Amino acid sequence: MNDRPWEPWIRRAKSNLARAKHGKHSEDVLYEDLAFDAQQAAEKSLKALLLSLGATAPRTHSIGYLLNMIERNCDIPIPHRVRDAVVLSDYAVTTRYPGDYECVSEEEYRLAVELADAVWTWVTSVIEYY
Fold this sequence. Notes:
- The chain is mainly α.
- The chain has one domain (7-129): Up-down Bundle (Four Helix Bundle (Hemerythrin (Met), subunit A)), CATH 1.20.120.
- The protein has helices at 7-22, 31-52, 63-74, 80-83, 106-129.
- Helix 2 (31-52) runs parallel beside helix 5.
- The longest helix is centred in the last third of the chain and has 24 residues, at 106-129.
């Protein structure tokens, strides 16, 4: 049995974050897809944290739901900037289906990456502490 079940989640989160940060290296890359990677980085980071603290990682794309689980079950203060990442949930599903959304702007993409990075950085610092 893996005594560090969060490690694959943190590794995948880091991969998603790296892809999101790599940016629009081609005109064929859409900001929607980069924002999706940012959302995935935050989601997987939060699931890693839950696992590291002995909780389960639910099958959800909702950043707000995951933050509420951490707040209710783990007694860890959540920074305001990490709480701001709830807006990333919109990029989990809506922007993946053409025609169901407005295009993501460069500014929105940059904010998504900034928020995902804040979540990943916070989560990895908490895991190291505990």
